[in-house]
Design brief:
- The structure is a single chain.
- The chain is an alpha+beta fold.
- It is 18% helix and 43% strand.
- The protein has 2 helices and 7 strands, in the order E-H-E-E-H-E-E-E-E.
């Protein structure tokens, strides 16, 4: 398991915009991360007050950050090179995510074409309910 302190050694994101708490598995071209958005997360104050829901864009960013950790662990990059989002082919939201739910983020890296990585990510919440499925590309910048 890679805790948040070590995730900061892998990806450039920092609180309050770091959305991966820990990496629980890293095998081949697949990574599994975890995240819990506490009810004190600032975005809950304005995103459906009284009935807080984690914004879809935040769920997507959680997947993209987990994917960046996978790329940076698989491929040694030149200093200053950063994986950035290049394309979202689709993002399908299957279930809402409430505060304090344990999220499992699973990302696989598919084909690599030059500086582009074709990827797929899923977010599951407690009870293995699929909350998000997305296909996307990261590019090295």
């Amino acid at each position: 398991m890679i805790p948040i302190e070590n995730i900061e050694d892998i990806i450039p994101h920092r609180p309050p915009f770091l959305f991966v708490d820990r990496i629980v598995a890293l095998e081949g071209n697949r990574i599994v991360g975890e995240k819990i958005f506490p009810e004190t997360s600032d975005f809950f104050r304005g995103h459906y007050p009284g009935n807080p829901i984690t914004p879809g864009v935040i769920l997507c960013e959680t997947v993209f950050q987990t994917a960046a950790a996978l790329i940076l662990k698989l491929f040694p990059l030149e200093k200053g090179t950063t994986p950035v989002l290049a394309r979202i082919e689709n993002a399908r939201f299957k279930s809402i995510v409430k505060p304090n739910e344990i999220l499992r983020i699973e990302v696989t890296c598919g084909e690599k074409m030059g500086k582009f990585f074709m990827m797929e990510g899923n977010v599951f919440k407690e009870g293995n309910v699929l909350a998000l499925n997305t296909k996307f590309s990261l590019a090295l910048a």
